[in-house]
Design goal:
With 348 residues, this protein is α/β, with parallel strands linked by helices. The protein folds into 3 domains: 64 residues, Winged helix-like DNA-binding domain superfamily/Winged helix DNA-binding domain (Arc Repressor Mutant, subunit A, Orthogonal Bundle); 130 residues, 3-Layer(aba) Sandwich (Rossmann fold); 117 residues, 3-Layer(aba) Sandwich (Rossmann fold). It has 13 helices and 17 strands. The chain is elongated, with a radius of gyration of 25 Å.
Length: 348
């Protein structure tokens, strides 16, 4: 390998990263193939006059990305040759939901075949996110991050100081923040962003449906107060602001109870699908008629809601994924607010 892997002593790029890039490049050109043996850590460090720690770090990155593997007593081998030579992307998602997967699938479809995307779910957990970042830092060309985390008491936070510190280590032109809008992240990292503005989005979407909403006597927001994957409290702020500004009688409750009291003139804005299912079932069992004397607006669009005729307020998940891919391909920079829509159907 000494004939085709070169280490540039004058380069500002870390030497372990030069090793990683060189091996990936030689795989992409066919010089290295699956099952080819590569030198041991000690041999590599001796041949290139590098510290053992430098080579070990490079091999660790390559193993993490499943590019090489080690066999006890035999050495290191190439295990993957289907590598993309131009763009390698780490995609970090806070939860495995249908909405997040629509963003991810749209992103993968739009980025094209000349890329490799690794998807990791960190479940809104700070420790898991930091561990993933520590292992992957320097190993990818781009990092797409949806920053949503939970506190010990299951409240939503956009970031913690440790998260902010971790994200700030990514070069600003290699970082794409998606879904969440937070000024402290912006100022620290200077990241590319495609974001939702949760407070103003719900306000403006409800405002778009004001004519129909006014026919109802009281509007309820079903906001899960404590859940494994908490929702931004800015949704609450935007809802309250709308109701106060337009003199709407309102109430915020944390779930749809099994025996919830339903009255003519009620309008429910529902976030979680389990609450939506429970409410629709109870409405059907009552004497009330959906869209006539009781109304439902659901948060986040899905094909099933469209099929059932449920009015929704929702960001455009497909557009968010497409736009992120375009920004990478076109090497764009800046902050873009993702479209958020009011889609009226028969439930209102």
């Amino acid at each position: 390998m000494i004939d085709f892997i070169k280490i540039d002593e004058t380069s500002r790029k870390p030497k372990y990263k030069q090793i990683v890039d060189a091996i990936i490049y030689n795989i992409s050109t066919g010089t290295l193939k699956v099952d080819d043996k590569i030198p041991s850590i000690n041999s590599f460090s001796e041949d290139y006059y590098l510290s053992r720690d430098t080579v070990e770090k490079a091999y660790s990155v390559l193993k993490e990305r499943k590019i090489i593997s080690s066999i006890r007593g035999k050495g290191y081998y190439i295990t993957r040759t289907k590598l993309i030579s131009k763009i390698n992307i780490l995609f970090l998602v806070n939860k495995l939901s249908s909405y997040k997967m629509r963003i991810y699938n749209s992103f993968v479809d739009s980025i094209g075949g000349n890329s490799h995307v690794d998807l990791f779910i960190y479940h809104c957990d700070e420790s898991l996110f930091l561990n993933l970042m520590d292992k992957s830092l320097g190993a990818y060309d781009y990092y797409v991050v949806m920053p949503h985390f939970k506190t010990d008491d299951l409240k939503h936070v956009s970031f913690t100081e440790k998260i902010l510190q971790s994200i700030s280590q990514i070069p600003k032109d290699k970082l794409i923040i998606m879904d969440n809008n937070n000024n402290k992240i912006n100022k620290t990292s200077g990241s590319i962003e495609i974001y939702q503005d949760f407070e103003n989005d719900i306000y403006e979407a409800l405002e778009a449906g004001l004519t129909k909403i006014r026919k109802y006597k009281k509007i309820f927001l079903i906001y899960p107060n404590k859940t494994v994957y908490p929702y931004p409290r800015r949704i609450l702020h935007g809802f309250r602001k709308f109701c106060v500004n337009y003199d709407m009688t309102f109430e915020i409750i944390d779930e749809v109870y099994d025996d919830i009291i339903l009255k003519e003139g009620d309008l429910f804005v529902i976030i979680e699908e389990s609450d939506l299912v429970s409410l629709i079932k109870q409405i059907r069992e009552s004497s009330l008629e959906l869209g006539q004397n009781i109304g439902v607006i659901s948060y986040n669009e899905t094909p099933l809601k469209e099929l059932l005729g449920i009015t929704v307020i929702s960001t455009d998940f497909k557009k968010m994924g497409e736009r992120a891919a375009q920004m990478i391909l076109n090497k764009e920079k800046g902050r873009i607010k993702n479209p958020f829509n009011f889609i009226e159907r028969k439930s209102l």
